[in-house]
Amino acid sequence: MQEDESDLTGATPRRRPKPDVLEIGGRKLKPATLMMGHGYDPALSEGSLKAPIFLTSTFVFENAAAGKRHFEGVTGKRPGGAEGLVYSRFNGPNQEILEDRLSVWEDAEDALTFSSGMSAIATLLLTFVQPGDVIVHSGPLYAATETLIGRILGKFGISWLDFPAGAEREEIEAVLERAKAQGRVSLIYLESPANPTNALVDVQAVAAARDAVLGEQRPPIAIDNTFLGPLWSKPLEHGADLSIYSLTKYAGGHSDLVAGGVVGAKALINPIRMMRNTIGTITDPNTAWMLLRSLETLELRMSRAGENAAKVCEFFRGHPKVESVGYLGFLKDDRQADIYQRHCTGAGSTFSLYLKGGEREAFAFLDSLKIAKLAVSLGGTETLASAPAAMTHLSVPDERKKALGISDNLVRISIGVEDPDDLIADFDQALSAI
């Protein structure tokens, strides 16, 4: 009888009797189609149509040699990484299926999922940054990200320099030159659109500036793609190396879970995986299972929310109590419009609303909402509104908030999938209360 590979190597191969179908008749299948079954074979789970939740802390090896081979991969004694399943701090069936599907949206080589968006960001930073290094980032960033980079990593001798989200290549190169003089630039970190101003970063300009100034050093470019990804923006196509997500938002999309993700090339994902294995920031099986459910309707939900946002923003645009609307669909004939046209396929459903007045007017508007919920976060099926200067970005120093346009009259709104005319009626009556 012929021996199979596992008999010879002691490996525990992933058994998938039916390979994934990625194309039919030469037609590459779309992500919306692949979300219904990619990475999962019902034959491995008693014929269950949907993947079960694998609530186990550990997995059984087929033999001792398989266990040794696995840990050789985990510890790096053998190239190629870990094979099979061993312990749920490292991986699990739900997480692996989720990561397979998440990578499809950006046509990435690999993906990892985490217990939150911030744990994804923290794990990434710990992977690439060491004492004495300099992080260059766009501004503004989500307040917790700025805190992590500026206050926490600063305790360990790591410094940072930033440039405005809409900066041109020359300005980015100047910041990189200054950073290069300070120490090793180990990471370029971007957020586009920026939270909460909706300002876009020119990823192509950042990549060109990185290559021109840093040459062979070539630190990875990581970008928080939560606001537009993965449907309306695919930054890996424009020069980014890693795309980061708060999967809590559009990917999860129901305001009932917290998770994060990173997608990109295997060469960069693998060291992040090793760090995740060590510090234990992986997604739990139940959350991964819920995300598998959510990814099936991601395109439908994001499309409906985007259509709703376009109608709502048109209403706000001409209202006498509104100073301006930071909605990407309104960009025209300027640098931000140029970035939008090159980088984005849709305007999204989260935008910044600047009311005439200040905190008093913003609070009066928020307190009068009847359909939209007064809550932080975004990307859910329901419409949410908040005051960033007084809430999510309260910890940002006043001078920096002023420089970044995070003013007291700013209301951030994330449009959901409700009837758009009902939402407009709600916003209309809330504005009348100011």
Explain the layout of strands and helices.
Elements: H1 5-9, E1 23-24, E2 27-28, H2 31-34, H3 64-75, H4 93-105, E3 110-114, H5 117-128, E4 134-139, H6 143-152, E5 159-164, H7 169-182, E6 185-191, H8 203-214, E7 221-224, E8 242-246, H9 248-252, E9 260-264, H10 266-279, H11 285-295, H12 298-317, E10 322-326, H13 335-343, E11 350-355, H14 359-367, E12 373-374, E13 384-386, H15 398-404, E14 410-414, H16 420-432
Parallel strand pairs: 4-5, 4-6, 6-7, 7-8, 12-13
Antiparallel strand pairs: 1-2, 3-9, 8-9, 10-11, 11-14, 13-14
Describe the protein:
With 434 residues, this protein is α/β, with parallel strands linked by helices. The chain has 16 helices and 14 strands. The strands form three sheets. Strands 3-9-8-7-6-4-5 form a seven-stranded mixed beta sheet, sandwiched between helices. The chain has a five-stranded mixed beta sheet with strand order 10-11-14-13-12, covered by helices on one side. The protein has a two-stranded antiparallel sheet with strand order 1-2. α6 links the parallel β4 and β5. The radius of gyration is 23 Å and the shape is globular. The termini are far apart. Residues 1-12 have low confidence and may be disordered.
State the main characteristics.
434 residues, alpha/beta, seven-stranded mixed β-sheet, 14 strands, disordered N terminus
What is the arithmetic mean of pLDDT?
93
The 3D shape can be described as globular
| Weakly predicted, low-confidence segments | 1-12
Percent range for β-strand residues: 5-15%
Sequence of strands across the biggest β-sheet: 3-9-8-7-6-4-5
Question: Gyration radius, to the nearest Å?
Answer: 23 Å
Count of helices?
16
Structural class: alpha/beta
Order of helices and strands: HEEHHHEHEHEHEHEEHEHHHEHEHEEHEH
Helix content: 25-40%
- Sketch the major β-sheet: 7 strands, mixed
Beta strand count: 14
Distance N to C terminus: 82 Å
